[in-house]
Design a protein that fits this description.
The protein is mainly alpha-helical and 333 residues long. Helices cover 65% and strands 8% of the residues. It has 14 helices and six strands. It has a three-stranded mixed β-sheet with strand order 1-2-3. The protein has a three-stranded mixed β-sheet with strand order 4-5-6. The protein is elongated, with a radius of gyration of 26 Å. The termini are far apart.
Amino acid sequence: MKLAGAIDFNAPAADYARQDFPLLQAGASAEKALETIRREGVGERVIYFYAVDERMRLVGVVPTRRLLTAAPATPLREIMVPRVIALPATATVLEACEFFVLYKFLAFPVVDADRRIIGVVDADIFMESVLETQETEGEDVARADFFETLGFHLAQVRNASPWRMFRYRFPWLLATVASGTICALLAGAFEVTLARSLVIAFFLTMVLGLNESVSMQSMSVTIQALRSARVTRRWFATAFRREMMTALLLAVACGALVTAIVWFWRDEIRAALVIGGSIAASLVTACLFGLGVPSLLHWWKLDPKISAGPVTLALADFFALLFYFTSAWLVLR
């Protein structure tokens, strides 16, 4: 393992991997695994314990708490987590840093083509070398901000190549292009409805503006929450209930306000109800997209800061116009 110092982002991540870690047999008992750890030691720093099969291939990671609290005869296969995110031996330091930012783990095993562990890369090397942090009283604070700071650092590295940034961001903008095309076709399908009631056309910009504002608010709050939370069913259910209540309050308030504006301005009660009601319905979906899209992308291990915005706005705009035009067609024909 290389010593801490200036890091070449194009160098192999394996050059910075530790070798002082015990490997546990997945078929062994918890008692046997603890004996192995005591016999081989844990080296300078061990964060996770990795389990291997008879051919020494990585098959799981054993959480320390489960290992310490399991009954002595419990097989490791029953307490280990089989889904292990590992760095390939060909990964560069830049790719290793991206793994830390994306998955927010404190260490990753480095494996060869046969899934055999050749080393472990942990976050301390990057904290000391990439971010040049020192061991002080504020180490815990530095560690808490590690992933965010490393993300900004990597963004600067990526920005050195405009072509790379283009390839990273452009595919997600295709969602906006596709949504805009579909929305244009949708508006064309309701051309007669728009011609019959001009007030519907007058408030089209407000409908889209409100939906985009609400969806972006919800998305920003969700991305902020995802920095310190994992997407689980329980977390999502709690967030969904909270966002649904917020969405209903926003929908009622905005829908009633716009209904009153249209009614007093144009004195057309049916048009006012169509506009206000469709705004209320679409704002609920906008809030839910703002929660669901970044959560889903985060669960898929994609970067929601880049990808969530275009996808969320595309879905929010489409459903807003669908509610708007369909309501106008049903009520004002």
